[in-house]
Recover the amino acids of this structure.
């Protein structure tokens, strides 16, 4: 997940620099075949010991790879995240040994649970120039009349590698989302929906590739394995299994407003007890004072006129930091999010009507309700203000945001039409919480939004 200023040649104005500060620098070298083999051997040795122990309990032989008897489980999710965010993967920066090892591990997991290679030449789609390699698996749809249509479930597996002299292992960004995508794909092998499902583990989402033609998801849109008109929805997963602040169970579903059929599928998908899931329009997080800023792999599909969903827990204080470790992940929450994702994907896969795309289907009433839920949680005891030790002035500003959003809600309930300023109120309240929760924003500047 990114802001547009993560690209030094995009939006690199003095205003952006003042508002968001500098991100940690990232560097990395090319891969060496011997290093790749050593990394793979180390990962395989560690995984073999863990899987042998699991096999003793559940009867799955170690030779089968990961235990896929129940992919939608904490055990499955934990196993994926622990490997991808391990020291052996060295931060998964493209071109490194750890990046190659991560890709091999993902392909092994897809093979073990019965996914089929999506491409004619196998699992991999090389991005032009060999800067990245997407990994693509397919669950064949159960209905011969609809199996040529696909739902894409995607998450990027690359990360930053060396961040200012320390390794960023990227558990939250984005090993957890990769685990969720793999779990859903593995679960659907046993019970495929009418449409086919493409599990897309994207590469080159992190800088310097973000929003460039070499970004893995953008490259796929430019070179699709399934014709884009047959892609009924593309779901992007980024930053799952934690929260804007410690203990927050919020989980946001964005983009449903771009398709009435997708919105209907989300609305009927049961939210697991304990998960605070709510819908929000993409405009609320993208349309900022600094301009339009996409966040993740959904953008290329949306720009191509395909329905999208973006599921995320949002940036927090571990974002692009060496502290983004497995120990910070809430696997119980990640499991709830994976169950919810499976219900959404199954509903879309079995839908009687092919989703349509609308360029502007904003649902401001729903936006207002969702923003109020987050503001209430942020202001509650143990919420954002308390958890991050923010001052009284921050609490006052968030209370003012809440009052302003309530006024917007009252206008809508009275049948009124929102002005540009009132729509801006929804965006400002949303983005202030995001700013305060994120790792690279000074609190004082968040107050200036």
């Amino acid at each position: 997940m990114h802001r547009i200023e993560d690209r030094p040649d995009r939006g690199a104005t003095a205003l952006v620099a003042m508002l968001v500060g500098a991100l940690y620098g990232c560097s990395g070298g090319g891969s060496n075949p011997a290093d790749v083999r050593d990394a793979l051997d180390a990962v395989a040795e560690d995984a073999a010991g863990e899987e042998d122990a699991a096999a003793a309990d559940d009867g799955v032989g170690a030779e089968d790879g990961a235990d896929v008897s129940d992919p939608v489980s904490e055990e499955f999710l934990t196993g994926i995240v622990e490997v991808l965010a391990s020291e052996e993967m060295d931060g998964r920066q493209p071109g490194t040994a750890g990046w190659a090892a991560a890709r091999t591990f993902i392909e092994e997991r897809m093979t073990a649970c019965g996914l089929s290679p999506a491409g004619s030449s196998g699992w991999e789609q090389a991005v032009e120039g060999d800067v990245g390699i997407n990994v693509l698996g397919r669950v064949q749809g159960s209905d011969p009349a609809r199996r040529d249509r696909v739902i894409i479930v995607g998450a990027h597996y690359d990360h930053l590698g060396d961040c200012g002299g320390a390794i960023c292992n990227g558990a939250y960004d984005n090993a957890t989302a990769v685990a969720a995508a793999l779990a859903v794909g593995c679960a659907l092998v046993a019970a495929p929906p009418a449409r086919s499902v493409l599990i897309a583990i994207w590469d080159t989402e992190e800088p310097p590739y973000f929003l460039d033609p070499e970004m893995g998801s953008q490259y796929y849109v430019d070179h699709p394995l399934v014709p884009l008109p047959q892609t009924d929805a593309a779901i992007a997963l980024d930053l799952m299994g934690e929260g804007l602040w410690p203990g927050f169970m919020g989980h946001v579903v964005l983009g449903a407003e771009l398709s009435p059929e997708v919105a209907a599928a989300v609305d009927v998908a049961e939210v697991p007890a304990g998960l605070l899931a709510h819908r929000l329009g993409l405009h609320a997080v993208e349309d900022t004072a600094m301009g339009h800023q996409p966040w993740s792999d959904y953008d290329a599909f949306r720009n191509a006129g395909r329905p999208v969903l973006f599921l995320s827990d949002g940036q927090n204080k571990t974002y692009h930091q060496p502290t983004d470790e497995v120990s910070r992940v809430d696997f119980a929450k990640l499991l709830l999010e994976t169950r919810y994702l499976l219900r959404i994907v199954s509903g879309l896969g079995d839908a009687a009507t092919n989703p349509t795309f609308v360029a502007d289907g904003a649902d401001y009433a729903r936006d207002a309700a969702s923003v109020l839920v987050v503001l209430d949680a942020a202001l509650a005891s143990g919420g954002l203000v308390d958890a991050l030790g923010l001052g009284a002035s921050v609490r006052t500003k968030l209370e003012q945001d809440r009052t302003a959003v309530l006024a917007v809600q009252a206008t809508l309930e009275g049948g009124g039409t929102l002005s540009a300023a009132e729509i801006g109120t929804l965006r400002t309240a949303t983005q202030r919480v995001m700013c305060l929760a994120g790792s690279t924003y000074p609190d004082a500047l968040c107050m200036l939004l």
Summary: The chain is about 45% helix and 15% strand. Residues 4-66 have pLDDT under 50 and may be disordered.
